[in-house]
């Protein structure tokens, strides 16, 4: 089973899809608008909400991100959308050239927290916040690091 990051936006999902698809060299992009479904005549959506994205996904390098808009008419149910640091997308791949490419693309218009560099836990690690306020972590060796630490812990504890 794969974990998929799901991002909600305040009416700008179309722009986010375009940006992430290009930055991550998406292999497949799917999107469904609210207008793609029959409307309840008793509760029709306002015209400006019909063009918003109900559900979307982009696939890249074996990963997937899903996104949608929070409808203004639903905010009394869902609450206001708040940008924060509770969502972080991590890209873990051994191909450092591709990792560097993704990092450069996603940093456009954003803020680099840690430039890509060698760390004790990774030969290529970095962090940034993109122009939509989404935090990204890049790590070429996350799986190897975790396996090594767990293996050493087992050896040390005698398990």
Defining traits:
4-stranded mixed sheet; alpha/beta; 5 helices; 8 strands; single chain; elongated; 159 residues
Describe the structure.
By secondary structure, this protein is an alpha/beta fold. It has five helices and eight strands, in the order βαβαββαβαβββα. The strands form two sheets. The chain has a four-stranded mixed β-sheet with strand order 1-4-3-2, with helices on one face. Strands 5-8-7-6 form a four-stranded mixed β-sheet. β7 (122-129) and β8 (135-139) form a beta hairpin. The chain is elongated. It starts with a strand and ends with a helix. The mean pLDDT is 86.
Low-confidence stretches: none
Shape: elongated
User: Strands of the biggest beta sheet: in what spatial order?
Assistant: 1-4-3-2
Major sheet description: 4 strands, mixed
* Relative helix content: 25-40%
Q: How many alpha or pi helices? A: 5
Compressed to H and E, one letter per element, the order equals EHEHEEHEHEEEH
Distance between the termini: 27 Å
Radius of gyration: 19 Å
